[in-house]
Structures are given as C-alpha cells and as structure tokens.
Amino acid sequence: MSDEALTDVQRELVAHARGLAAGFSLDYWHEKDEKAEYPWEFVKAFSAAGLLGVLVPEQYGGLGLGVTEAALVLREVAASGAGTSGASAIHFYVFPPGPIIHHGSDEMKQRVLPAVAAGELLMAFGVTEPTAGTDTSRITTRAVRVDDHWEISGQKVWTTNAQNASHILLLTRTSPRDDARPLDGMTLFFVPLDREKCTVRVIHKLGRAAVDSNEVFIDGLIGTDQDVVGEVGQGFKHLLSGLNPERIVLAMEAVGIGLAALRLATDYAKQRVVFDHPIGSYQAIAHPLARSWAELHAAELMALHAAALFDQGLPCGPETNAAKYLAADAGFKACDAALQTHGGFGYAREYHIERLWREARLFGLAPVSQEMALNYLSERALGLPKSY
Ligand SMILES: Cc1cc2nc3c(=O)[nH]c(=O)nc-3n(C[C@H](O)[C@H](O)[C@H](O)COP(=O)(O)OP(=O)(O)OC[C@H]3O[C@@H](n4cnc5c(N)ncnc54)[C@H](O)[C@@H]3O)c2cc1C
C-alpha cells in the first residue's frame, strides 16, 4: 500500500522505521547470519527510537498504538533486507508481551512492560513441545503446587531467544487434560529463565541463524503466584487473544521480505545482460516478478484489512488467517522468483537472495502452518465440518 494512503502518524512511523533499518546494510545481515550473532545493534537502534513499545500502553512507557502500526513497522524492517533476522529480533519485544498487557496484574505490568518497551528485558516464548505439535492441548510441561509456590518441569522446543532471554512466558499444564474441555487446565507463567533449572540447547536451522531457536529442558523451575499471567487454568485462552494480531504482523513481515527480494531482483534484471539484452526484457524473467508484485500487494491489503478490523474491535479471524496464508505464500514465491532471476548467482551468499529465500520459508511453518490456516478457513469461513 502506498504511503499516501496512511494517516500522518502512520506515515511518520513508517519513515522512522525505514530510516533506522536503512542504517543496517545487507552485508551486516549477511555477517550476522554467517556468525549466528544476535543483532543487538539493530535492537538498540529501535529501542532508542522507542519503537519496541509500539503496542505497550503509554502509561507503561510505550507508544500505545494499534496492530496496524505494529504491522507497518515490521513490514519496513523485513523490507529493508533485514528479513526475519531483523524482524524476529524486533517482533519478540512486540508480541510475546501481549498476554501480559491484556491479562497481567497491575503489579506485573508495572514490573515488566516499561522494561520491555525500553529494550531492557528480552523474553522467550515457550509454548511448542516436541510431543504435542500443533495440538497444544497435549503439552506435558506441568506446574505443580508445592507449599506457597509452583514447581515447573518439562520440555519446550523451538523456543526463540532462550540463549539470551532473562525471562520466559511459559505455558504449562496445571490440571490433567480433559477430553471434554482439552484447552482448559493450562496456566501461563512469566518467570525468570533460571539457568540452574533450565538447560538450553540451540537448534541449528535452515535460516535466521542470528535469532536463536532452542530446546529447553526444565527441571524444578520455581514460579510464584505473582508470576501467573491472568487466571490459573485459563492460560491457553489468554494466549488466544494475541494470536490474531501476531498473525497479521507476521503476514506483513512476509510481505516485507518478498518486497526486499523483488527490489534486489529488479535491480539485477535491469543490469544483467545475456544474449545482448538485459534479462529483465525477457518475459520469462519479468512476469514472475510482476506476478509477485501483484501477489504481495494483494496479501498486504488483506493484512491491513484484518488489522483495521482488529483495531476497531471487530471479528477478524478469517481475514487474519487468509492474510497469513496469502502473505507466507507470496513472500516465499517472490524470494524464489528473485533467486531464479539471479541465475547461478542466486545461489551465492554474497547476492543476499538465498538468505531471504531461506528465511521466507519459515512463514509457511510457524507460528502456524499453512495447513492450519486453511483448516481455519474451511471451518470458519466456509462452514465445513472440522477435519481433525
Ligand atoms: C524457527 C522457528 C521458530 C519458532 N519459535 C517458536 C517460539 O519462540 N515459541 C514456540 O512456542 N514455538 C516456536 N516455534 C514452533 C512453531 O510454532 C511450530 O513449529 C509450529 O506450530 C508447528 O508445530 P510442529 O513443528 O510441531 O508441527 P506438527 O504439529 O508436528 O505438524 C507437522 C505437519 O503436519 C501438519 N498438520 C498437523 N495437524 C494437521 C491437521 N489437523 N490438518 C492438516 N495438517 C496438519 C502441519 O501443518 C505440519 O505441516 C518455532 C518454529 C520455528 C521453525
């Protein structure tokens, strides 16, 4: 969507984020990816500008803006060429705090949110488990009441940021799974990631090496009543309220990464001469790029539509899932078309396309797979019977 269609506040925010992200070159991201180094300089630039607290209410030191604004900022980050190496680093200050903003006690909000907005508190998000998969009701990490506190044991997987995070938002079982109400009986804790009680092991993965993902083995981690987010037994419901906004923003990150790839590809297609003509003059090269332009902009409109509904307090489930599905697909296809445009050089790291291509693949898998987005649409938009 062109900047002219945005409000003044949004246009200013976009220009600010774009300017900050432009200070970090493709070579910076290449090096962070090669060395698997966390992009602290990038995070510091965004925290100094106050952008990490885009969704944090003003009374807790944030900007108190909506999902539309958060989505626009993260689109700019990804579109700068930072891809998910930059977007995930910022994303984890913006989204995991959601349940605390909406369901945390006043004491917890005072204690946590100003530090998050200032970039002083990095958190991890521990929901996924190796044996539960997409069926979160099957998690087995449990919190047991012992005297006046809770003791938490179990295992999480894919926990982003756990190498450096000081705290973890942790979904646990506090009552056994009941087939009649499988999503009840789970409790959300926001606890220090105590290294004496948690073993963190990095997962070597296809892309986004700069932002770590981990296995976390938890043995007797202590949680207090003050660490419980919202109500005991209602943890999954508290998480649900953050799922739609997160998917909207991820859709915009996927659009951003696709736009970055498209920009690199069109520059290359204008300059690279083969058989006496720039390759961009060949329709076999131009049309996939043109198709990607159309698909990315259509996905972006769906995401902004979903964001507008959400920010007005209106139902937005189908639009959100459609946006996530379309953007994940369009983002990866744009990176793939960009790679093809570069011919053999697309395979070389120094052209930066292969990093974006590897990173863009993630949006089809996490935080929710394309299949689960389509399951949602089958059931909720089309009224078909639930298939699982
Ligand atoms: C890089 C990365 C970072 C991540 N970060 C975090 C994080 O910080 N915190 C966290 O908690 N999690 C995180 N995740 C986990 C992510 O959310 C899960 O990988 C994702 O939810 C899919 O779960 P799974 O891998 O167990 O797949 P599975 O549930 O095992 O699914 C395997 C395949 O089966 C398909 N499938 C399953 N059920 C159905 C069905 N009913 N109908 C159709 N198809 C189905 C899925 O779509 C998928 O293609 C991350 C993952 C990655 C890769």
Task: Describe the fold and architecture.
There is one protein chain. The chain is an alpha+beta fold and 388 residues long. It has 3 domains: 3-117, Butyryl-Coa Dehydrogenase, subunit A, domain 1 (Orthogonal Bundle), CATH 1.10.540; 123-234, Beta Barrel (Butyryl-CoA Dehydrogenase, subunit A, domain 2), CATH 2.40.110; 237-381, Butyryl-CoA Dehydrogenase, subunit A, domain 3 (Up-down Bundle), CATH 1.20.140.10. 49% of the residues lie in helices and 14% in strands. It is built from 11 helices and 10 strands. It has helices at 8-22, 26-35, 40-48, 67-94, 98-103, 106-117, 235-271, 283-311, 317-341, 353-360, 370-381; strands spanning 123-126, 142-146, 149-157, 167-173, 186-192, 198-202, 214-223, 228-229, 273-274, 277-278. The strands form 3 sheets. The protein has a 4-stranded mixed beta sheet. A 4-stranded antiparallel beta sheet has the order 2-3-7-6, with no helix packed on it. Strands 9-10 form a two-stranded antiparallel ribbon. α2 (26-35) runs parallel beside α4. The longest helix is centred in the middle third of the chain and has 37 residues, at 235-271. The radius of gyration is 21 Å and the shape is globular. The model has no long low-confidence stretch (mean pLDDT 97). Bound molecules: flavin-adenine dinucleotide. Flavin-adenine dinucleotide binds at residues 125-128, 133-134, 158-160, 205, 213, 362, 365-369, 371-372, 375, 388.
